[in-house]
Amino acid sequence: xxxxxxxxxxxxxxxxxxxxxxxxxxxxxxxxxTVNTNLPTDWAGCGEGEHAGKWRFYLTGVAGTTGVQPPAxxxxxxxxxxxxDIALTLADDATHTAFYELASSAKxxxxxxxxxxxxxxxxxxxxxxxxxxCEPTRVTMTATAPIVVFGTxxxxxxxxxxxxxxxxxxxxSQFRLHSIDADGKGREFTGLHTDSDGRFTTAVxxxxxxxxxxxxxxxxxxxxxxxxxxxxATIVVWSVPAAPAAASGxxxxxxxxxxxxxxxxxxxxxxxxxPSADVAISVYSTPQLLGTTVCDESGAFxxxxxxxxxxxxxxxxxxxxxxxxxxxxxxLELPITVAGSGQGGGLPLTGDxxxxxxxLGVLLSAAGAALVFWAGLRPRAxxx
Length: 384
Hints:
The chain is mostly beta strands and 384 residues long.
């Protein structure tokens, strides 16, 4: 593809003596990597930490129990200059891999070569470019809402850019979105395409209850031609019943079952979930997500949530997540009564309460009239 890096790895055995001077043609194996000067911004191998932005080659099948000593150096051609030696920086005996690293300021082009012991087998091992001085990509994603009703369709939107925020447009074959639901069932969404601003959208249907994990991954074009994940992002959308499901157990609230109009915070807790399971706290009748948390290793959780300010009357607090059997969804529930604005933590003002207050008013009025009547019957003091 024009303007993109194309790297070809060629493994040449000693029999290919035409690549080597006659004096060394049978001395070992020559491995060659062809590297273009400019790395694309959408290549995965930009490196991390101390390796970020550097040229880093790898050679497998050496060191450790292989009996093959890694070369002390490899050679690479620099643009508009001759070859440069790149020294061995690490020989990992456990993975049988050697690494060679060069500062990013060097502009490599053409062939990088490694002269390896004759015992090294080209067909079973690799010499390649692991990372180079390129800019990593970034995927961001959002959903229409963090909680949806089971069976409904929602929109996932995202954007693909460089780390500096430059959009990566017209990316389709290299980007994919896949999901995993609470049942462990996966689904892949194909045909996604980034527009001129690097944005994409797709429709997703909540086909099971519980958490739905959506991951967007962008695969760059690595010099070795193999697949690398350049960047990825994961979001969680909770699929819940339209009405509270049958409870698996009781949810405990530090405020009890009565929520006052003042501080509308309460700590809810529960148990019986899978270890480290994600748990969502929602409130019904119309489901609203109040918060999420992660269980401890015993499958228990405790988290503070805030009851929405516009909520009053009778409702249900529900905690949902993967059960201890790792297969079903567990629901813990607590009926609550929420005081309206200006009310205390007592019962809300319902129709029954209104009639009670009216009856009390009638009784008080009657009592007042009786007091006035009896006061009129009392004898008056003389002179008054």
